[in-house]
Amino acid sequence: MLHRLASVALLLIGSSAAGQAIVAPTTQPSVESILARHVEAIGGAAARDAVTTQRMTGTIELPSLDITGELTILVAQPDRIRVTVEFEGLGKVEQGAAAGVGWANDPFSGPRIMAEAERLLLSRSIDAADPLKGFASAVVVGDESVAGRKATRIKFLADAGHEIDEWYAKDTGRLLQRQATWQTDFGPEEQTILYSDYAPVGDSDLLAPKRSEQTFGTNDLVIVLDTMESNVQIPDDAFAPPAAVQELLDRELEFVP
Fold it and tell me: Are 110 and 130 in contact (CB under 8 A)?
């Protein structure tokens, strides 16, 4: 179970861009207009584009197992991210992506290269340019109730075999919930994330959720961000994969024709 925690943590970061709408029922606002309203509700496009790097720290807790870990997330636009979760007595869980490659490493399942569908999902969590990148279609499903609030649901479908449903609050316009389904090396994954406590990212005008309550399988976890910094200096090697992952990448390159 713990090998999935870094992946879960990545979904805390909500997509903050508006892209081209593909399909929308005539009785509902378009995909484009819903995403554009979300961008305005979290500070606007100028605030979003002004943030090129982020460093976030906090805790990740599994209440049912009485397990807590220290979480660090590093992001550098347009495509680099690294997540580290430190569990006392259990070890370190890491995950990252850069240059079209996603990877994960933990003491339970070892190093691995992400399947394309999982990598696309990870890239979506940090892509501030186009929330439809990697997806074949998007459609407005309709209005539903989420945590006692009215929200409009959008379904994104990808050729790679996964789908994402997102619910945007009718009152604020912000991303309220995300449900993701995709295939991994460990089988099918489904995760549901409820976002709350939007707050400024560092000294910027960009808002992001500081809290997420997540469910995957029969397990629940809570992520709370204590710090969210913007435009911090992050060395390039901070995104480099661990040596064991790099060995896998080098091995794959040997077989590329």
Answer: no
What string of DSSP letters covers 52-117?
A: -EEEEEEEEEEGGGTEEEEEEEEEETTTEEEEEEEETTTEEEEEEEETTEEEEE-TTT--EEPPHH
**Paired tokens of 165:** 């449903």
Lowest mean pLDDT among 139-153, 184-198, 199-213: 184-198
Report pTM.
0.84
Residue 100 has pLDDT above 90, yes or no: no
Contact 57, 71 (CB under 8 A): yes
More confident residue, 235 or 255: 235
Q: Which long-range contacts (CB under 8 A, 24 or more apart) does 61-66 make?
A: 61/221, 61/222, 61/223, 61/224, 62/219, 62/220, 62/221, 63/220, 63/221, 63/222, 64/219, 64/220, 65/219
